[in-house]
């Protein structure tokens, strides 16, 4: 976990180059999340009743809306995450042209792989303990593998961990720790849990679209599955950075594919 930036680092006092760095990182992350967001919007949009609209209209509108949301998430994440000790060490080193990206990659690799194995074990175990009629209702499990990896593995981490978790932690840190300092562990865990639950809830509209409805059993399955994994991903993001969280999520989905 990096040291939070001082409150004295006001935007007006920063050199122009430092002001541009969050924008560069935001653009890089937006491009990284673009394929998954568009693919997911297309999958969901094709399953919604279009009425008198052409078949491509809903997927296109969904893609535009999702890309705007992704843009907001990556920008606020890039701007706020360093202030509360969060970050993306490998991608940040590429954008800032400082440090060694290879070193950052080596540091994130082990926690990412370990998190992926644990996440896959959780997904497979839950699926084995769940009636067969419910498991396919998880919107992630109903998707092709490439969309699983690009949307849930990459874009969801950008939206939920990088965007939502960073914003929530910054807001609560400013309210509850007005004197500054590193966010307390209890505060971080509270935000990890909130982001995990909200991220799980964000999968419910897709579940309804892909499965044609949402039963109480399916609601419980989706929330439990994604909330528990969200706790793991949030911890990895906090301690090891965004890259490690993305590695963990994509690996968990790849290892559990066909077994859930």
UniProtKB/TrEMBL annotation:
GO molecular function: endopeptidase activity; metallopeptidase activity
Every CAAX prenyl protease 2/Lysostaphin resistance protein A-like domain range: 142-251
Record keywords, A-Z: Hydrolase, Membrane, Metalloprotease, Protease, Transmembrane, Transmembrane helix
A Pfam entry, by short name: Rce1-like
Biological process per Gene Ontology, one example term: proteolysis
Transmembrane feature ranges: 27-44, 56-80, 108-129, 158-176, 188-212, 218-238
Name assigned to this protein: CPBP family intramembrane metalloprotease
């Amino acid at each position: 976990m990096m040291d939070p930036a001082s409150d004295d680092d006001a935007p007006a006092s920063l050199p122009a180059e430092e002001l541009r760095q969050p924008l560069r990182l935001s653009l890089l992350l937006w491009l990284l999340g673009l394929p998954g967001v568009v693919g997911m919007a297309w999958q969901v949009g094709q399953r919604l009743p279009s009425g008198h609209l052409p078949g491509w209209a809903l997927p296109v509108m969904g893609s535009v809306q999702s890309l705007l949301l992704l843009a907001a998430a990556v920008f606020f994440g890039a701007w706020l995450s360093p202030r509360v000790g969060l970050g993306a060490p490998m991608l940040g080193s590429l954008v800032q042209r400082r440090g060694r990206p290879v070193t950052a990659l080596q540091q994130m690799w082990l926690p990412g792989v370990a998190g992926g194995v644990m996440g896959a074990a959780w997904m497979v175990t839950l699926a084995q303990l769940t009636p067969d009629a419910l498991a396919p209702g998880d919107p992630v499990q109903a998707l092709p593998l490439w969309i699983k990896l690009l949307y849930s593995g990459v874009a969801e981490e950008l939206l939920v961990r990088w965007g939502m978790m960073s914003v929530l932690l910054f807001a609560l840190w400013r309210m509850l720790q007005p004197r500054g300092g590193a966010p307390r562990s209890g505060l971080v865990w509270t935000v990890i849990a909130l982001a995990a639950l909200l991220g799980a809830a964000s999968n419910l509209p897709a579940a309804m679209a892909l499965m044609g409805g949402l039963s109480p059993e399916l609601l419980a399955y989706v929330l439990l599955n994604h909330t528990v994994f969200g706790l793991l991903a949030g911890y990895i993001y906090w301690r090891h950075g965004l890259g490690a969280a993305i590695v963990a999520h994509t690996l968990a989905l790849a290892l559990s594919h066909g077994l859930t």
